[in-house]
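RETRY 2/3 - previous attempt timed out on the joint model. Re-submitting the same 424-residue input unchanged.
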Amino acid sequence: MTDTPEPSDDRSLDHLIEAYLEYLDGAGPEPTLTELSGPQRAEAQELLTLIDASWGSHLDMPPLEKDPVAIALGFAPQPIPVIIAGPRLKSVRQQNHLDARQLTEAIRTLGGDLSIPEVVRLERLPASEIPASTAAVLADALEVSIDEITDPSHLDSFVAWLYSEEFEQTVATWAADEHRDRDASAREARQRLLSASRRSAGQAGRPEWHTLLQAVLEAMR
Amino acid sequence: MGTADEELLSRIRAGDSDAWADAFKEYHRLTRRVVTAAMGGAARSVFGRSADDVETIVWQEAMRNGVPDGVSLRAHLLQLCRSRAIDALRRGRAHPEEELPSSDEEDTEKVRPGDIEIYNGGSVEEEVAQGDLAERISAHLGVLTDGQRYAVVERVMKQRPAKDVAAELNVSPPRVAQLVTQAYKRLRPALDADEAITGEERP
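RETRY 2/3 succeeded.
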């Protein structure tokens, strides 16, 4: 570290501060200011006040996502979700000649935590949002790259639309009007639309999906 | 500091949904520092409440009730830290052996801040003032040279031995004290400028 020394024309003040730091360390007596002139004494007193406030004031702040206060207040960043296409996951698992139990064991070996019912549920749904870290462990357990199970091209057209800009914009406008959380609203709308699509076998096209979304948002009011 | 505070207040009053999250990012260090100091340390639990719990209550109360007119957000948060730390310490003094009650009712009895002494002999008022000043010093470390900043952070804020810091800076221990002196001399004008903006006075 480079630092150009500044000329110090005030050796008595330097000595006082050095002695005061030793005093704060518990390694020396408290220095007195009596040997200083009036103006020097006032300046020294101000500096000692600042040093007193700083002494031991180093603060270790946890990252926001692990900060208990930020978490309690809802200010901690949410884990970034990725979208898993259920049929694609099932296909990759079968290509690897693994059953659900073997897959969950492999996940556990890698430090992940997915149960058999959770894996089965993921495979049954057209799309699921899971934390990126979980998707990474899942991909490792399947010995494929994470893109193999999260690439949007593996989603069917209706599910892909649920993650489109059109969908996001529609929900964001509604959430702003209703003073609701945008991300939470999008998650709920997706969940409801996915249930609806299972019932109707997803036969409709884009205009109908938009109408369906409007109906779902109306029901969420 | 003044402008950022005013902008945050304007956004809060305009109902900007992200304003409190940004306020938290701006002042979380301050509230943590002050509450932790006032409660007597991060690890200390008073009547079942930790400094984290008290800081959470401070922010929840601020978000629920808003900020009164004519008060900066910073000053309001400091006042809440002071009051809620006093509440926690009073509860601890009133019920030293008891567990946290099941109800969440707050102690509404009025107290005088100067009455509450924390375990190391200081008062909540003093600790809050010290924490506030420490945070302002920390916020202005950017005005220092690399060596001055290193000396202040390592020698003063982290309380590391002079000889260790001197070895890392490749200077003598008296030179570390000299860097510290120069640093605080340089910080004074920046802190004075804060006072000119916010009207807050150094202790």
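The longest strand of chain A covers residues 81-84. Closing ticket.
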